[in-house]
């Protein structure tokens, strides 16, 4: 009887072990290289092998988490030689990017050199940004929706902005209208998640925009459940502890202006049908609107910035569906009070921040961050854009985005909120 029980127990344990091996080694999207290393994340010391290091952070992990971490790290040695060869190929192809895409040529890039801040200044800047974020996350008198929930309380569908690169141990939370197209390109190059004629892309600007924003291109946290089942949250927590996590933000009001310009001043069929038609009907009293954006623009029917602000403030908007990602608050996209980010970049200092981050990640020899647009929406435009917006609306709008202003150290726009 005892032998029979031992046999059944052995079969169960072997089955579990084989399932885990399949998860690690035969992942069908090519993200099975679980390199749990990072250039400057805090949990491990230089030279140590992440995933099997004993320390304070690992002692608190449940047994299943520690077992998974050790199992995942076992692929490190087997894949290290392959990774070195790949990086050598990337280095060979990492010369000055060539803008081959017509749309990128039209948009225009600033190829001029920029004076980088020295590492000490950048380090101090990061310390200050992280200190501000953590202080307000811990401040009980400063509240906003979802602040108090734990990471486990975040639904999977709200984790779709966290892109994972297992090859280099990086997690990037992308925020639309904050250079996310080019940061996604960088993540594609690093993770080798997209091939061009059987070869991974080496130059970020070679990647067409339509591929950059294809959801199938990136491994995101919300895909973990489908791939790893009940182990998904355990794996997320391990990666959040061991990987380098970063995001880029910008002045919330300027981001709104940029989103409006991009989605409603240019012909965009999807945004016209989903958002412009309802706005024009609700706030401009238009009826029998054209079905296509080209017809509407031809007839001079465009959403005004005032319409857009009314839409954001209308309580019916959120009842119908959550804000679109292009104007959804950063705290709702990236969960900065639940995820301890190692690096906070800002669009206002994009060139310096990007260069410093790539150095910290030790991938600056593999690629360079694509140059910034020459015609970037400027914060000095706020006064003109909000000139016709009633003061009461401006104050309501600030309350709607206050958490983003405060958490990321943007000053309150007093000139827009007072008489």
TrEMBL record:
Database matches in Pfam families? Sulfotransfer_2
Q: Name one GO molecular function term.
A: sulfotransferase activity
Localization of this protein:
Golgi apparatus membrane
Q: According to its record, what are the GO cellular component terms?
A: Golgi membrane
Q: What is its EC number?
A: 2.8.2.-
Q: Please provide the record's keywords in A-Z order.
A: Carbohydrate metabolism, Glycoprotein, Golgi apparatus, Membrane, Signal-anchor, Transferase, Transmembrane, Transmembrane helix
A GO BP annotation: carbohydrate biosynthetic process
Describe its membrane topology: Single-pass type II membrane protein
Membrane-spanning regions, if any? 7-26
Does the entry feature the keyword Transmembrane helix, yes or no?
A: yes
Answer whether the UniProt record assigns the keyword Transmembrane helix to this protein: yes
Q: Family, per the entry? A: Belongs to the sulfotransferase 2 family.
Q: What is the name of the protein in this document?
A: Carbohydrate sulfotransferase
Q: Lineage in the entry? A: Eukaryota, Metazoa, Chordata, Craniata, Vertebrata
Q: Which gene encodes it?
A: Chst12
